[in-house]
Amino acid sequence: MTNHWIDIKNSNCVLIIGSNAAEHHPVSFKWVLAAKDNGATLIHIDPKFSRTSARCDFHVPIRSGSDIAFLGGMIRYILDKKLYQEDYVRLYTNASFVVGKDYYFKDGVFSGLDTKNRRYDAKTWAFEKNADGSIVVDKEWKNPRCVFNLLKEHYSRYTLKTVSEVTGISEQDLVRVYDIFCATGKPNRAGTILYAIGWTQHTTGVQIIRTSAMIQLLLGNIGVAGGGINALRGEPNVQGSTDHALLYDSIPGYMSMPRAQWQTLDQYLKANTPTTKFPESANWKANTPKYMVSLLKAWFGDAATKDNEFGYQWLPKLDTFADTSYYSVIDNALHDRMRGGFVFGVNPCQSFANVNKVRESLDHLDWLVCGEIHNSETSDNWHRPGVDPKKIKTEVFLLPSAHRIEKEGTISNSGRWLQWFDKAIEPQGEARDFGNMLVPLMNKVRELYRKEGGVFPEPVLNMIWPEQYKAEDWTKRINGYFWSDVKVGNKVYHRGELVPAFGNLQADGSTSSLNWLYTASYTEEEGNKSKRRNPKQTPLQARLGIYPNWSWCWPVNRRILYNRASVDEHGKPWNPSLPVIVWNGKSWDGDVPDGPWPPLAEKGGKLPFIMHADGVAQLFGPGRADGPFPEHYEPVETPLKSHPFSKQLCSPVYKFFEEDMKKVAEPADPKYPIVLTTYSMTEHWCGGGETRNTPNLLEAEPQLYVEMSHELAKEKGIKNGDGVLLESARGSCEAIAMVTVRLRPFTIMGKTVHLVGMPFAFGWMTPKCGDATNRLTIGAYDPNTTIQECKACLVNLRKLDKLTEIG
Amino acid sequence: MPKSILIDTTRCTACRGCQIACKEWHNLPANQTKQTGTHQNPPDLNPYNLKIVRFREHLDENKVVHWNFFPEQCRHCLVPPCKDVADMVLEGAIIQDAKTGAVLFTDRTASLSAEDCEAIRQVCPYNIPRRDDKTGKLTKCDYCIDRLQAGMVPICVKTCPTGAMAFGERSEMLELAQKRLAKVKKTFPKAFLADPQDVNVIYLLAEEKEHYYEYATF
Fold this sequence. Notes:
The structure holds 2 protein chains of 2 kinds. Chain A is of the alpha/beta class. Chain A contains 22 helices and 31 strands. In chain A, the strands form 11 sheets. In chain A, strands 25-27-26-31-24-30 form a 6-stranded mixed beta sheet. In chain A, a hairpin with a 2-residue loop joins strand 17 (486-488) and strand 18. Chain A starts with 12 loop residues before the first strand and ends in an 8-residue tail after the last strand. The model of chain A has no long low-confidence stretch (mean pLDDT 97). The model of chain B has no long low-confidence stretch (mean pLDDT 97). Chain B has 6 helices and 10 strands. A 4-stranded mixed beta sheet of chain B has the order 8-1-10-9. Chain B has a two-stranded antiparallel sheet with strand order 2-3. Chain B has a two-stranded antiparallel sheet with strand order 4-5. At the A-B interface, helix 2, helix 3, helix 21 and strand 27 of A face helix 1, strand 2 and strand 3 of B.
């Protein structure tokens, strides 16, 4: 979240799209309804009318996979009707930057496409430069190649008519939503967009979310109270795990994973430390060397010295375009490019798309280690229906995991609050938390290395590794230590003392931090700030709903990110009745500002978007794999043969593995005419591995269902509660029909398109509840993230009298 | 003055936190249920579910979807007809706690015959009592009397994340109910309070009872 949970109450319009907030984040609705109490309009855009829709002012059904069309239409509407917050856009976005002459967009494809490798070369997306290397800026927006004009041109195709045809939303409903939400473009009003992980699950997932950010920038809704782009995260600690680089392409603190082209630390730092010609840009990433060296120091301690590049050579380096996301891992297993592995915190044989492939792939492993609370579809894969266990060679080790209430530590919530939780009881039986599995395991490896030697011993033996796992010790290491005596202000910090804030991290090896974003979370002066529970606040903070003394949030306890964008160049809040920060002539009141500098117009003043090299937010974003402007493409499995935006049906660069492409329905395939979307539900958590073993939750949602309209049910001769067989190009799946008015047929490009929805929580390990919905879903992936398109694929269905999976 | 619960269904998201928390607090085992084409499960109150959330949907004349949620439980009537009937057979089988207004089925209900229990169920205007055929006892919501006596609020109220449920002195809850009703009526002109003068568990409903449950009011 750019903002935080409580801040939702400050919104004038809550647009929930790509999320079923009430069902999947039940507590969020405390704040959504608080906004409604304060007079906000609540809008839900989703294929299905859900418990979220029930509590919103109104719901608008959208065909799954057409979000960019819907949002692109809103961009056009904003530009046509001049609903943007002009001062904000001029000051704080790259609307005035001039794009280079080589950039073009034609027939749905951007310049620089390498069709063979399905990759863009982004060179032609660069901004035009002056002789001194600075970016050409056109503050008058007269140059046809300035971002503002390119934006206008790009979205000129997104008319109400075309958007309506593709999304299935009537023009009347489009105008209704656009009018209400775009009214928040006024400086004294704020709108928020709530989405969740489902929005990422498209081959255009990243660009969908980017489009929403562009809308919020045009409306001046980023950095203000009640605004923002708010990703609703969950109990799985998605926020914390991403911050700490669970994903393969980054290392902690959102720094790039070292790659083959950066063989030395210098090369890495040069490539990953941006520069700017704008003196008003803080260019925060110029600090990358301090954060990277401090990270290396946190990993390797005294063994990391300037002379050995602080241990950079001990890090693995990915090939330039290598993708080691989990779907690559599965494909590697299938093709016998790996022999074994560890699975923690995920149930691939249940929760991954195109799961028949996943299940088969794991059969190829010699060994597999699973850490689980209960035996899962993954840990017991060789017992799955239709498979002879004797014929599967994999040796599986099941490590019993402690439950969350059996361990202590921190979780970072959606609002980036670091919150400590205590252990309620000791782990039962032989169960252990992950720390107590991994620390001794690695110590065993280190012991073997010491005794017997081995390949490349330096990283294994040089890293700082404790004898025993203690959660709070890691919390301190994440914050970071001084490794030599350093004077900060008037105070001398000694080796072994905690670093007070990331401003003190150094590139010379005198400091360490396992994640620069979290430096200041645990200090000598205040201890473990994730344990703070003090509701004290100033009157301004009380109005905003900010509790600066309750827990701690990154960065440096800033509760609303980009908050310098909530004021004009003189430091005056756009909305004086609800200011986030206020310049009092000497310093800022309210929230912790994005840097201490004075307002932009004053000497030494800085631009608000400090994480971008040039200090402004990117309406034109040349950093993505699939284009600088989001563009509508159909899902890989689509009920359409063409769409009105371009000749390019699907993204030209979405990712896939050859194996996946063998089983894909044709566009508008008569064999598979129905759109399937999949989702979570309140009663089961993710794939259901834990909650299906919680009898009271299984009682509330016992078996797999497929939600469908009365119209489709009638067409297929299906009655509510009947058994149904669903088939896609990849597999089949039984479910119970839930015939409902909450789903209705769409009219898309003049033809009727039915959409059905299914949860993915039910699997064969729980008897008679049904088996994985993901046997139907498709293995096609976003080019930026390799996240699967499990929100839209094609199926057919028919009534089934005799069910075998559900009883 | 007894205590009351206000349940504002226009704030309910049917997360079923109350349904599950009720089971957990009372240590009730799970029923084996089946998917029959609705999210509502278990389908009805039973000895192991003293509170369930009912789901009902319809399309209105403008083709707008309405999905109503009814977190059902005993209303703890001011003058409970169940107690009147039980008293005729066995004094003390059903009692009313003067301090809280809680209507309680005691262990002595096990001595009632199945027919007596059926008569008690039939006299309840809200169709709440259910007989546990294993123990012979009559079951229903006990107002979390153990929690109330320990100075805590009922577990369903404690669990509700959206503020759909409020608990307090009856006079305060009646006042809050009127205040909420006035506000809700601006969006839902047909909104009303279900039998507020007769019960301690007061529902605020957005539209006619048939769009919730036939026993939502009497």
